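Bumping my old thread because nobody answered last time. Still need a sequence for this structure:
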């Protein structure tokens, strides 16, 4: 019987009947590292006329459309993305769109955090008093929302442009809300992080333009920053991107996508820095061409790459589906292989049973002969 059990165990393992395989997206501790994608809600149909070389498969949408939000969330979930880091500062339009997205996210069991845009269009810092008031209002309104992404029990938020503010201004912004919100800075180096470590809760480094093929300091820098943040008992969001090209908006640099190789390389470097969260740049930053949202130029290619990296179930959300059909479920749940996986599992189970019966009969025959 010992031989029979051994054969059955080997067959069961080969057929995957003893449980799922480990998720590839794991840190050294074995836990699955959450991934959040930077998400921009500033789009009007007219926005797509400026500085774009690629366009969404969903068309030139408005960020007010809840059907678009549902499809974005369904597509993101299909690729192993756990939530969005939403670009926000309090204006009537931004507040309305954030509220709609929070509602949709709660319905779809998806997570949201915000990155507060602390700099204006000309990259000048907003008044610290305004930012402090906005953070306080956000905490009062949303701190208990089930849609918010939490780390260590607290909702996570980010302050963009923290390097443009004094230590005293950052303390004025974060001090009143740190009892109920985590506020991460966006410093770009160790010195900057250490300057604000005592008045923030970690670092979310937005490094979209690095070329991992030419920057030999890419992975070592992420590793050093991750160690520094954790040494100060903060939370570390490590950046990764599929590529970059901001030349249409005044930039001079291009980072080739290389059909997913750049994304894979940056994913590995980010994961090796032992992050608390992976920060994907971006879901829909079409002006800087760092988007992974399905587009006319790239199709679903970069969601497929993420899906393989994250170990997410194979799905094929269709851009031709109506975004409002079954609250995004059609896009999230359509299996690429249809009924075949279950049929193969059933066939495998039958093979195991046949083998067991055969071995048991042989074992009894041998016992009678002896």
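Sorry it took so long. Here it is:
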């Amino acid at each position: 019987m010992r031989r029979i059990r051994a054969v059955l165990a080997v067959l069961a393992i080969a057929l995957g009947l003893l449980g799922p395989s480990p998720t590839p997206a794991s840190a050294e501790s074995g836990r699955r590292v959450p991934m959040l994608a930077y998400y921009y809600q500033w789009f009007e149909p007219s926005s797509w006329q400026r500085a774009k070389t690629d366009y969404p498969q969903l068309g030139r949408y408005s960020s007010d459309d809840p059907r678009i939000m549902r499809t974005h969330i369904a597509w993101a979930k299909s690729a192993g993305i756990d939530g969005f880091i939403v670009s926000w500062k309090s204006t009537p339009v931004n507040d309305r769109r954030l509220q709609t997205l929070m509602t949709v996210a709660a319905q779809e069991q998806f997570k949201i955090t915000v990155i507060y845009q602390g700099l204006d269009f000309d990259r000048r810092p907003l008044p610290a008093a305004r930012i402090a008031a906005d953070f306080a209002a956000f905490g009062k309104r949303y701190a208990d929302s089930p849609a918010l992404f939490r780390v260590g029990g607290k909702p996570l938020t980010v302050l963009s442009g923290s390097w443009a503010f004094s230590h005293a201004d950052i303390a004025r912004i974060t001090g009143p809300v740190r009892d109920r919100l985590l506020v991460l800075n966006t410093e770009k180096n160790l010195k900057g992080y250490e300057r604000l470590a005592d008045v923030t809760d970690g670092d979310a480094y937005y490094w979209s333009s690095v070329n991992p093929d030419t920057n030999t300091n890419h992975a070592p820098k992420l590793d050093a920053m991750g160690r520094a943040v954790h040494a100060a008992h903060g939370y570390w969001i490590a950046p990764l991107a599929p590529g970059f090209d901001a030349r249409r908006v005044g930039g001079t640099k291009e980072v080739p996508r290389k059909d997913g190789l750049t994304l894979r390389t940056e994913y590995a470097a980010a994961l090796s820095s032992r992050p608390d969260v992976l920060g994907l740049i971006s879901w829909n930053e079409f002006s800087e061409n760092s988007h992974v949202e399905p587009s006319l130029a790239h199709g679903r290619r970069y969601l497929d790459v993420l899906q393989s990296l994250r170990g997410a179930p194979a799905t094929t959300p269709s851009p031709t589906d109506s975004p409002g059909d079954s609250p995004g479920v059609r896009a999230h749940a359509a299996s690429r292989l249809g009924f075949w996986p279950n049929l193969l599992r059933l066939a495998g189970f039958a093979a195991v049973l046949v083998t067991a019966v055969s071995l048991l009969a042989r074992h009894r025959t041998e016992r009678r002969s002896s």
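Residues 1-29, 316-346 have pLDDT under 50 and may be disordered. Let me know if any region looks off to you.
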